[in-house]
Every structure is written in structure tokens, then in C-alpha cells.
Amino acid sequence: MSTIQITCKNVSLGYEATTVVRDLNFIVSEGDYLCILGENGSGKSTLVKALLGLKSQQSGEITFGNSIGKNEIGYLPQQTIVQRDFPASVREIVQSGCMNRCGLRPFYNQEEKKLASDMMEKLQITHLARRCYRELSGGQQQRVLLARALCAARKMLLLDEPVTGLDPKATLEMYELIARLNREDQITIIMVSHDMQAAVKYASHILHIGGKQLFFGEKEAYLNSKVGKAFLEASDAGGDST
Amino acid sequence: MKETGLNLWDTLVYYFQYPFVQYAMIVGLLIALCSSLLGVTLVLKRFSFIGDGLSHVAFGAMAVAGVLGVSNDMTIVLPVTVISAILLLRTGQNTKIKGDAAVAMISVGALAIGYLLMNLFSKSANISGDVCSTLFGSTSILTLTKPEVWLCVIMALIVIAVFLLFYHKIFAITFDENFANATGVKANAYNLLIAVITALIIVLAMNLVGSLLISALIIFPALSAMRVFRSFRSVILCSAVISVICAASGIILSILFSTPVGSTIVAADILVFFIFCIISSVTTGGKKA
User: Fold this and answer.
1) Full-model pTM
2) Which of A49, A42, A33, A147 is nearest to A89 (CA)?
3) Do B181 and A88 touch (CB under 8 A)?
4) What does the pLDDT read at residue A241?
5) What is the pLDDT of residues B232-254, one digit of tens each?
6) ipTM (interface predicted TM)
């Protein structure tokens, strides 16, 4: 019933001679909440780049369904140092998400400005529109970037470690917000994370990678799998990293 | 007191009758405007030193042009600087440290080779005078010919036009290159564009402030504006206004008191920076209290 948006078939990724991760086989369907788990260096960020079309695969095939164009994935990147002291108002940043709709037109039209306003309304940051980005709290900043991502694409969001550096309350709010977008707006979510607890709580599907594909399937199946049990135990024993 | 004030005004009017003073004013203001527009982006992208590096390359290229006896320096200086700008911004993207080192290496290298060549082959009797004016731009702004003025005006207009047309794209790639790339904006192409217009501005600005002081023209207005203003647009506008006012007052003061043009302008920029620092600490302090 639900349409397939992304298909990865025997995909290997890497840099020049070295392969970081190989034999990836998974599908993402409309309305899914896929969580990509893995240790540092397991190839998560490489996979993100490949899905965004910033990097071509060494072998295999990544195909996008009819409903999703190549640049129609809303991306929430990890924060960079540059952004920490960047003088920009919230509205300017959210509007920059409409960039891919402009083409060569140098300015935003009414429709794009309205889209930006709507997205700010949706994420309850309208009252911050004139505030400076660097003065906001971590949680508010992530909402701004999420609104920007929603301006770029309405059907799929790719979130790269969205709760890094947030305090527990903001972390919970962020997860709830993402879950609401998934549930109420049918937006497909792909989240890269190493937060096992959150993955288990919110995701519908799990992709666990570490050099190769260790697991792909529904969450329930993952919890009963060998990989899943081992990882869950390890993350419990390691204490709550957030 | 009134007497001296009147005298200063008379002196100013007297000097502004000469075309070379008018040229200096026009070119100076345009260069200040262009460099401040781009300065905000360069500072935010952590490329503050690129101005310094490139201006030294331009210095080296100028020395080579002098040795080869090329009548118009620009034919060598402009392409060399543009190519170096492209190379420097390229390496800067991959790894930060490598980019830093590359800038430092190229800039001091070009400076040393340029000075060496000037010393070995120069026909001029006053080498240190030549070097000093290239480094600090002491007189070249006042010796511009009409074609040079036109060249400056045209290049400045190109820079301003490019900046206005691509303002939103420049904002997007400055704020978040990864996101821009992911949504299909060709960030590398725009980085290239920024590199090229940076090089253009630097070659132009060498006339005004000389190669050692160009960085000041690029970074001070941007840093001052960033102290007080909180949106990208207001920072850009404020930085442009600061830069133009400082350039104008610097040129006027240097005429009145016969000080070197470049360093007077930079001194004005520094003064404004401190004023803005104080404004910033007063306003934020007021909020907290």
C-alpha cells in the first residue's frame, strides 16, 4: 500500500581505494521512521552523503521512487563551528531552505516567503522570527534548522544526529517533534543516531551498520535479533550517553 | 578656531578641483564598498586571511610584471591573483589546517620572491620607496590615470552586481554549505565565484591601501558590524556604510594633514571598531541588568 521512496541494492561506499561500508540492501517506504545505528566510523555519515547525492557509490544502486526527486530530501545537518557565531535572523535562515525552488532567480517570491512563515508556524518559532540565531538555545536552533529542512522538502527528512549537544528536556522535545511530523504529516524520517533508547522508542525500522550491513528490518525483529540484543546491552551498560 | 576650520575647508575645496583627487575619492569609495560586502562572507567562512595571502601574491606578480617590463601590470597581476584565489579556496574546503598553511606559505613565499626580484632587476633608483608604496599604497591612489579609474569603476560595478544577484545564494552557502549542497545548490560553483571576486577586489584595493593593509579593509567593517547587528542583511548594510564612511574620512584627512592614505583609512576603521565594541557591550550589558 505504501510507496517505496528509496531502494538501496548491494551498495558499497568508500573513499578512493578504501571501502567504508559494503553490501547495503534496504528500502525506505513512505511514512517510515528509519533509524540508522552504528558506532563512530561505521559509515553512517558516508551513507548520509550518498543518500543526499553528494557522493557516488562505489558499486550497487540507489534508486529514488517517483514521489521523491534527487534534491527533495530535507536535510538537518550537524551544526558547524561557523554557525555558532553567525549573525543571521531566524527568518533569513528558514527562507534559505527555499533556495532550491528559486533556480537562478535572485530573490524569493511571495509563495516561498509564505512557505517559510508556515513552517515557522508549524514548529512554533514564529515569535523568534526576528531573533538572532546565535542567541537561541540549542533546542530552538534545531527547530530553526528543521523548519529550513521542511522548506526544502515536504516528504522526507534526513536527520544527522539531531540531538547532539541538547539537554535532556530539549532532547525529548526534539524527538517528540520529529515523531509528530512523522505521524501527523506522513513525512518519512531517516535519522542517524547512536542513541539506542530513542531508536527503539520512536523508529519503525532499524538499519544497523558497521563496515557492512548488520541488520535491516522492523524494530520488533531487531529487538529479538542477536545484533540488537548485543547493542542494547552494550548501550545500557555504557550508561546513558545523552 | 573658526579661522583654521575655514582654512581646512578651503584647502579641501582647493584640492578637490584637481581631477586626481576626484579620481582617488571615487575609486576609494567603490573599493571600500566592494571589500566590505565580501568581507562579511570571508570573515564568516573563516577566510579572513585570504585577503592578506592574495595581496602578497599580487605583490609578487607585480614585481614579476616590473621585471618583465610589461607596460600594464594588470595583464599579469589579475590572472595570477585570480588563479591563486581559486587554488586557495579549494584547499580551504577540504581541511582547515591545510588551508591555513597553504595561505601562509603562498603569501610569504610570494612576498619574498617579489622583493627579491625587485631588488635584483629593478631599474629604479629608489627600490625601498617603490616597495614601500606597493606595500602601503602611499601614493598610487593619487596617481591613477583615467583608464585605470574606468577599469576600477567597471570592476567594482561587476562585483556589486554579482553580489546583489547572488545575495541569497551567498548567504546560504556561507551559513551552511552542506545543506546548500544537499538541496541542489552548486556550492562549489559559488565558492569559485566568491574566490574570483575576492581576487578582483584585492587587485583593485592594492591601489588604495597597498598589499599589507588590504585585510584591514576586508575584515574591520565586517567585524564592527557583527558586534552590533544581528541579521545577515543588517550586518552587510552596516558594514558597507562603515567602510564607505571610513574610506571617505580617511581620504579627506590624509589630504588635509598629508598622511598616508591607506593607513589613515585603516586607522578610521580601527576607531569605528572600538566604538562598536563599546556600543555592543553597553547594549548587551543593559539587557542583562
Assistant:
1) 0.83
2) A147
3) no
4) 43
5) 999 999 999 999 999 999 988 98
6) 0.83
Question: Among A53, A58, A50, A56, which Cα is nearest to A69's?
Answer: A53
**B95-134 pLDDT, tens per residue?**
454 566 777 888 888 888 888 888 887 666 667 777 777 7
Query: Distance of alpha carbon B176 from its chain centroid, rounded?
Result: 25
Chain B positions touching chain A (beta carbons under 8 Å): 44-46, 164-169, 171-172, 174-176, 178-185, 226, 229-233, 235
Mean pLDDT of chain B: 82
Output the CA angle A229-A234-A235, nearest 5 degrees: 100
Q: Using one digit for the tens of pLDDT, what is the confidence trace for B164-202?
A: 998 988 898 888 888 888 887 788 888 888 888 888 888
What does the DSSP assignment read for B26-88? HHHHHHHHHHHHHHHHHHHTT-TTHHHHHHHHHHHHHHHHHHHT-S-THHHHHHHHHHHHHHH
DSSP assignments along B103-142, one per residue: HHHHHHHHHHHHHHHHHHH---S-HHHHHHHHHH-TTGGG
Of B284, B253, B268, B279, the closest CA to residue B36 belongs to B268
**Domains recognised in chain B with CATH numbers:** 20-288 (1.10.3470.10)
Closest C-alpha among B224, B164, B162, B221 to residue B192: B162
Cα B103 to Cα B122: distance, rounded to the nearest angstrom: 27
Q: Which residue has the cell 561500508?
A: A21
pLDDT score of A48: 85
Q: Which triple of cell numbers denotes residue A91?
A: 527568518
> Which residues of chain A have a Cβ shorter than 8 Å from any chain B Cβ?
52-54, 70-71, 73, 75, 77, 80-83, 85-89, 92-93, 95-97, 99-100, 102, 106-108, 130-132, 135, 145, 148-149, 152-153, 158
- A112-131 tens-digit pLDDT: 888 888 888 888 888 988 88
**A contacts of B183 (beta carbons < 8 Å):** 71, 75, 97, 99-100, 152-153
Answer whether A100 sits within 8 Å of B185, measured CB to CB.
yes
Average pLDDT in the A94-102 region?
Answer: 83
Please, which residues have CB within 8 angstroms of residue A115's CB and are 6 or more apart in sequence? A98, A151
Higher confidence at residue A185 or residue A2? Answer: A185
- List pLDDT tens digits, range A183-194: 888 888 999 887
Count of alpha carbons within 13 Å of B81, Cβ hemisphere only?
34
